[in-house]
Specification:
7-stranded mixed sheet, Rossmann fold, 26% helix, single chain, 446 residues, alpha/beta, OB fold (Dihydrolipoamide Acetyltransferase, E2P), 9 helices
């Protein structure tokens, strides 16, 4: 196929990004914002030897599940992929995406159930990161697969206060003397705004390519007029890459963090903290993990700053958290001390090294039900970690995943020895209107 070629296609399946998939003379064509069963006229916008990408120009036959997207920026901003269909059908598409991964990548014979629904289809996110458009001096979002910025006045996935925040920051940008960072020239000061809206508190971080922000008092004045509970900080980021924030923060006004209490654990968060963006789904997923780890000896691999380890400790017999980043382990120990937790040990080190050593020690003690909790990054588990798990043969493995492909790959490795069997694989709709899927997979010894 050639770029700019016009073709007629029938959509037959869904790709991993929620886009429609069709065949044309044996070649695979991905068509964003299309639905299975639709006949579409498409302009090929990218073509190579492996696949092509087409843009819809006309829909000749429309799927009955298609609807008008409520967001005026849909298909322009790259944040959502499924607003062109109703919520129920969006859940089915995600279910199919996970099923495709489990079947085709994992080679696993398992029927994926329906996703656990989010209580809110919109206005569920508690955090947003928005770049600043150097051409218009306004906040926006990136276009799909690009670094071109679309100005937005609101994001329907965010809680209602974000609309007020965008209006206020845009007012500040129109009045301040700060320059705006331009990715093409690598010059300018203001890069982006990161905000967290939770518990009626707004934490705002201004990311800058420098040391100081001009017109700070104006920013404080405008934001404090809109938000009673407010914290403002700067993040110093001189990197010319895709990293939104570095570890260098300067507090300039109000609150530094938000006090939280979940599942018996007191903790604090700021804009650098990891916290699931959908509070309702987070609670449902964590409750399921607590059920699977109750009264067990639990090893939380990839434990990070230790929040999940601490929460598991309120239900488990004993918990060990393994984390390779020293600063994260230090935070985990501070959290442990703050909550006076006695049955938690945080270990700093490479999971591939520490896990087999720990499992050997536990095996030599009295018989225990040993459960390993895996919550890896999007790239999945290190092969050495999976090999260590198989060598040590824990009783149960609870795997939290944010990527169907790497989940399927890792489950295939764990199941191919025939030591384990699937108890269940349950997806959750942590991110309505988007392609993203959170999943809990539990496997146990035969």
């Amino acid at each position: 196929m050639q770029k700019n070629e016009k073709v007629k296609l029938e959509i037959q399946n869904y790709g991993c990004n929620g886009e429609g998939v069709a065949k044309f003379n044996g070649e695979t064509v991905f068509v964003p914002y299309s639905l299975v069963g639709e006949n579409v006229d498409v302009n090929i916008i990218k073509a190579n030897s492996k696949f092509a990408i087409g843009k819809i120009e006309n829909i000749e036959k429309q799927n009955v599940e298609r609807c008008i997207a409520p967001c005026p920026y849909y298909t322009k901003c790259g944040g959502c992929q499924l607003q062109h269909t109703n919520y129920e059908n969006g859940l089915k598409i995600k279910q199919q995406i996970l099923q495709n991964a489990i079947t085709n990548i994992g080679k696993i014979d398992y029927i994926i159930p329906k996703l656990i629904e989010s209580e809110n289809m919109y206005q569920y996110r508690n955090k947003i990161a928005m770049p600043i458009n150097p051409k218009t001096r306004k906040l926006g979002m990136y276009r799909l697969n690009s670094h071109s910025i679309v100005d937005i006045e609101n994001c329907l996935l965010q809680k209602p206060n974000i609309k007020i925040l965008i209006e206020t920051i845009n007012q500040y940008l129109s009045q301040s003397k700060n320059t705006i960072y331009d990715e093409t020239t690598k010059k300018g000061l203001l890069k982006s705004i990161v905000a967290r809206d939770i518990n009626n508190t707004m934490l705002v971080t201004v990311v800058i390519n420098g040391n100081e922000l001009k017109d700070v008092e104006l920013l404080i004045k405008l934001l404090s007029q809109k938000f009673d509970k407010l914290g403002i900080s700067l993040n110093i980021n001189r990197l010319n890459n895709n990293v939104i924030m570095t570890n260098e923060f300067k507090h300039i006004y109000g609150l530094c963090e938000i006090d939280m209490y979940d599942f018996g654990i007191k903790y604090t968060i700021n804009n650098a903290s990891f916290l699931q963006v959908n509070d309702d789904i987070k609670k449902l997923m964590y409750q399921k993990i607590f059920e699977e780890t109750k009264n067990d000896v639990v090893i939380d691999a990839y434990s990070g700053a230790g929040l999940l380890s601490a929460m598991i400790s309120t239900h488990a017999k004993q918990v060990f958290g393994i984390e390779i980043v020293p600063q994260a382990t230090e935070l985990a120990n501070q959290l442990k001390a703050k909550n006076n937790i006695k049955n938690l040990i945080n270990i700093n080190g490479d999971c591939a090294v520490e896990l087999p050593n720990l499992l050997d020690k536990l095996k030599n003690k009295e018989s225990n039900n040993i459960t390993i909790v895996l919550d890896p990054p999007r790239k999945g588990c290190d092969k050495k970690v999976l090999d260590a798990i198989l060598l040590s043969s824990p009783t149960k493995i609870v795997y939290m995943s944010c990527d169907p492909s790497t989940l399927a790959r890792d489950l295939h490795i764990l199941l191919e020895t025939d030591k384990y069997k699937i108890k269940y694989i349950q997806p959750y709709d942590m991110f309505p209107q988007t392609k993203h899927i959170e999943t809990i997979a539990v496997i146990e010894k035969r």
